[in-house]
Amino acid sequence: MELVPFVCDATLxxxxxxxxxxxxxxxxxxGTAKNRKSAAKELRGHVLEVATHxxxxxxxxxxxxxxxxTVRLRGPGACVCVTGSHADLH
Length: 90
Description:
The chain is mostly helical. It has one domain (4-89). The protein contains 6 helices and 2 strands, in the order H-H-H-H-H-H-E-E. Helix 3 packs parallel to helix 6. Residues 81-90 have low confidence and may be disordered.
């Protein structure tokens, strides 16, 4: 549990391997809202790259699954804008 903040802060760097992406997914599930916000901030500007990455897309899906405040994932500066039944990448 002590490693969760560090993993969330290193989200972008860890996405290049399957083990790293799985570790980030687990950290997002175990972490606090503050940890998830940190991971989402790190993904800003890189969403298209992460969404099309071989293992990185898992982290985006997990972030949307565990984030209880969907407003945080919308709006200006957000990494993912969820509308209706699909997600628009920014």
